[in-house]
Structures are given as C-alpha cells and as structure tokens.
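Worked example (supplementary).
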Amino acid sequence: MTNILEARGVVKQYANHRALDGVDIDIPENCIYGLLGPNGAGKTTFIRIINRITAADEGTITLEGKQLCDNDISRIGYLPEERGLYKKMKVSEQMIYLARLKGMTKKDAVSNMNMWLDKFDIAEWKSKKVEELSKGMQQKIQFISTVIHKPKIVILDEPFSGFDPVNTEIMKKEIVELKNEGATIILSTHNMNSVEEMCDEISLINHSKVMLQGNVNHVRQQFKKHLYRVVVAEDMISSVNDIYDIVESKPLTTGYQSIIKSKPGIGNNNIIRNISDNYTIECFEELLPSMQEVFIEVVKK
Amino acid sequence: MGKIGLIIEREYLSRVNKKSFIIMTLVTPLIMIAMMGLPAILAGIKDSEKKSIAVVDNSKLYDNVLKSNNEFDFIYAPDAMASTVNMSPGDGYYAIIVIDNNLIEKPDAISIFSEKTIPSSLKNEVCIQMNPWLSERKIENYEIPELKDIIKESSVNININTIKWDKDGSETSSSAEAASLIGLLSTTLIYMFIFAYGTMIINSVIQEKTNRIVEIMVSSVKPFELMMGKIIAVAFVGLTQFMIWILLIFGAMATFSIVSGMIAGPKELLEMNPMMAAQGMETLPAGIDDSAIMSKVTQMLAGINFAQIVIMFIVYFIGGYLFYASIFAAIGSLVDQEADSQQFMIPVMLINIFSLYAGIYSVSNPDGPLAVWCSMIPLTSPVVMMVRLPYDVPFWQLATSVVLLYATAMITIKFAAKIYRTGILMYGKKITYKEVIKWFRYKY
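After joint prediction of all chains, the assembly is encoded as:
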C-alpha cells in the first residue's frame, strides 16, 4: 500500500510552546486513518499544516510523493472541530460558495450539491437560511460542504460531536462509503469506540510527539496483557502456577467465567490443554486491550 | 474568477442586498437634509393660538405703538392703571407689559410680567416694534431738518468680491465661504465614511470568528485573501453608497431649485439654510434682486473644482480606508467579541477624532502649519486634506500626501495580515500587545 501523505520531521514552534516536535506520520492511501491524542497534543496543528492554514517551521510534507503546495488544498476537504457557517446565508448559496472556493465550477457545485441533498433527503432545506436549521441539520450541511468537491483527502475533526445516535450511524456509513469510493479519510477523535470500529491505521500524538503508530489490530496486539477469558461448565478453575494466574472469577447463569493471565512464554494451546484436562471449556478467548485502554496507557506513561 | 473575486462578490452582495443598506442609503440623505432644514422649518411654525398681551401704559406716551400680529394680540388697558395688581394673571392674558416712564430717557422702564417663562419671541417682537419707533422719536427730538434722510443715506454695506488668479492670469471669482463650506462637508463625510466602513470590517471579522466559519474559510483560501476580499468588498459598498448619494444630492438639488424657484425665490432659499447662514453665505447686501443672488451663487461655486474634489475624495477615501480598515481587520481578529475590542480601538479612535478636529480647525487656516502637516501625515491626511482641497493645494503637496498615504496603507496591510492570520484562529484567550509583536515572526 502506497502512502498518500507523508510527514517527515515536522516541527512547529509557537511563542511559548512547541506544538509539534519532529513528527513523522505516514498515511496509506485509501484508508481511514485515526489521529489520536489528548487535548493540546498537537493534532489540530498537524491538521492545519496539512491544510496549509499554517506552515511547519521544519520538516516536509508530501502528497503523493510531491511537496505539498497551495494548489493541493482543492484536493482536501476539512471539517474542523470548531465549525460554523454563515448564519444569514441560504443553504444552497453557502454550499456553492464553499465549493467554488475549493475550485469547482458553479455548474459542478450545483449538481454535486443536489446529489448530496437528495442522498440525505434534505433537498427542501435548500432555500432555508442556515440560522433556521437545528444544530444537527447544520452539521449535515457542514459535512456535505466538506466533501462536495470530491476531495482525495477528507480530514474530519470530531465528526460525530453534535449528532444523535441515528445520525452518527448515517455519518459512519457515509465515511466508509467515501473510503470505498477511493478517498483517504483522516479522522481525529476522542471516541475510541469509533476508532476501533472504523480506523485501519492510527497515530497517537502526545506532548507534540508521535507515541504510537500503525495498524489498529497490530497496536492492540502490541499492548496485549496476555489475558484470556475462559468459561467452563463444572466449577471455578483453579490456578496452575507455572502456566497462568487467575485475575478474577465469577459464576455465570450457566458455567463459570475466569479471567486468566498466562505466564511468560506459555502459548494458547498449552493453556487450553491444561484447562481441558480438568474442565469442559465452553468459551475461550484472548482479551485484546481496547483502544481506550491503549490510549490511556500511552498517555499516562 | 479567482478566489479573491469570489470572496469580494459574496461580501459585497451580502451587504448591498441587505434591507438595512438600501434603507440607510436612501434615508441618510433625507436625514441630512432634514437636519439642515428642520430648524428653519420649526422656527417658522408659529403657535396656532394667538396670545393676548395686555399693555399697561402708565406713561401714556405709547398709545397704540405696539401693533397686533399673527402671534400676539396687544390689548391696551382702557384706562391707565395705577398698578398691575388690578390686572392679575388669570384674566386670560398671556403676559402683561407695563411701561412706567419715558423710554427714551429711561430705557429700562418697561417690563413684561407673566406666569410662564416669557418666550424670547415676545421680547423680540416688543423690541422690534418699539426700537425703530423710539429711534425716530429721538431723531425728531434733535430737531435737525431731514436728519432722517441723511442717516438713511449714510448707511454703507460693502460687498467684497474675492477673485482668484489662475496660472494663466485669468480671473475666477471664488468664494471663501463656499470653499470652507465644501471643505467642511467633505471632511466630515470622509471621516464618517472611513469610520463607518472600518467598523463594518471589525464586526464582520469578529462575526466570522465567533461563527467559527473562519477555519473552514482559511482551509480554502489564504487568510490574506479572505481579509483583502472583505476589505475590498466593503470599499465597493462604500463607493456604491457614495455614488448613490452623489446622484441623489444632485437630483435633489435640481428638483429643489426648480420647485423652490417657483414658490419662493433663491434669496429665501439661502436664508432658510442655517448651515449656509452659519458660514456667512447670506451676508448678501439688502436690496439685491433674486436674479443677482442666483448669479452670485453660481459665481461662488464656479471657483471650486468639483471634479477634483470628487476624484480626490475617492482617492483619499480608498487610501485612508485601506489604512484604517486593515488595522480594524487586525483588531477584529484579536478579540472574541465586540466588547473586547475596546482596548485596541481606543488609540485608533483617538487618532481619528484628532484628525477630524484638525480638519475642522484647518477650515479657518487651510495653509497653516497644522493643516499642512496633518494633510501630509498618513494617519490624518485623508480627513485634513479634504478641507484644504477647495483652496488649491500645491501639486507637490498633494502628490506627496497621496504617495505617503498609499505607501503607509500597503505597509499596514502587510502587518495587519500577519496579525490577522494568527488572530482569527485564537480563541478564548486575552491577547496582549506583547504577544501580537511575537506573531510577526511566525512562519506561514
């Protein structure tokens, strides 16, 4: 998989603090890329550098192998975390204006807008002023404005905030669809469930540096605690000292569940064999840490 | 069309299509005309009710000197009364005039009594009627034959023609009064324009910032394009309004002069206008007929180069506006809400108000050091130069002033852009001057 966007040694220094300190990030083409990190870690600064809102003091950013330049912003769609629209403008005027600023012709802008409005079934909002719409409606308009010019890279900063669960699902579906149509999506969010659910790759930024980077499943593997969940039929399993320790046990309505931690160098088969000697195994699974746990572990370090 | 063109288009149309713009554009000239004409009209409205004034002439010298008119009914008490006590208020008289003695010998022997505050119009009316009558009696008392005619003939009223020499030696009649009036008008107008449209920039920047649309905007266009697009669009709005006003004023003047020419005469027209009266324009010698006045007005205005004034107004408006608007854009970007803009606004306001005062002061001395210096310094030049323009400013001064103004405006725009692009993305933080200076070094 080739990288669509590569950042090398990006440094951004503000008057009183260094927002980015030698950041290297590779974003593979046509994936959903999670940009994670606590507040103030430098995510927004990094996104702004990609958008050419601000420039890096040091380092390079390449888009499809070429140095990122001002013309490239027409190929990027950006939904900032702090978002808004011109309240007095009509929905259609607003969308066409934003699309044309991204370099679209008026005709293309109109046809794309109509396509999206029909898709969300909100064509009747067209001639309403933005201030007449509810917050959720405005968010939808905002999302359409972000992708109306068919950008190659879509940057979404906390895209689900302000959406109810139904609309959140719709948004998730649309994001996946954008990916299927060939776009690369950079998702900056604190919602770790959606990261696990949607992201292929992630970078975790903390204190202006990249702490962790890679495929979501690999990352979780990397942070695994060698914990297993076992359910057996007969009784609570007892610990076997040189193979595993029991972390916790509790009876279920049928059977008994235990969380066990294997000793270093002990393989799964070894554990299963050991338990199945004495019990009937009803369920056995390895517990991978959630992204939430990975996040907290990395950030607290 | 480039991106900046799109921004200008949107910013311009969103303002010009607003109801408030259309209303303001049409109503403001009416308000201005009303402000000039209203005092005259109000003064002309008399109380509909005639006021009865009792006159008690204890001296018995002034029977029937005071004649009733539309406003006051002077009623002489049938019998000279010993005192005013008998004629107490409440008899239906508005006021009582009591004359106790010979007024030529004792001018203060006349008093007006009333329950209410005595209006100056009553006092004036009594003076106007009494004074000439008394003067005549006094002249008669000298017992010199034909003294009255001698005095009348000796009255002199000079009429100075001011004539300006052009370079080729030809003469143009110019009027100092008309020049100063036009200078004052254009100075006030340019001050209002720069300030009103500059404030529009501040509000618009703050609105985009609080709306949070600004981050979306700068992900599509450069902050500089956004700022300049806005500034240029508002300048066009200002010029549009100016042009509409020019047309309206000329249209109104034409209609007004035709209409008033039919009902009144140009002389009344001039006297009705207190603004002109204040400027001493109606110091017209008595007895000149209407056509002479008309030609005099034409003559006074002929010495003034209106085309130059309108063109220079536009040149100075654009230069001064660019200078102040870019500062206002920077200020707008620094604050989250309008109330916070005060700390940055105050220095700018002070300079602006100073320039207006310097301009007004320069009316009386348009070639004095204050006027010359202030019309060179870019901070004040747009406002002050407008005062000097009707008085033929030397070309080198005009050129220096314009070049300085535009050069400064360009530098200001450059620095304002640096502040703006950082400021618009800063939220929830009080920004100090010290921090702003650091931003000049940021790389973009």
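Two points are worth noting when inspecting this output. The CA atoms of residues 204 and 290 of chain A lie 14 Å apart. The mean pLDDT of chain A is 88.
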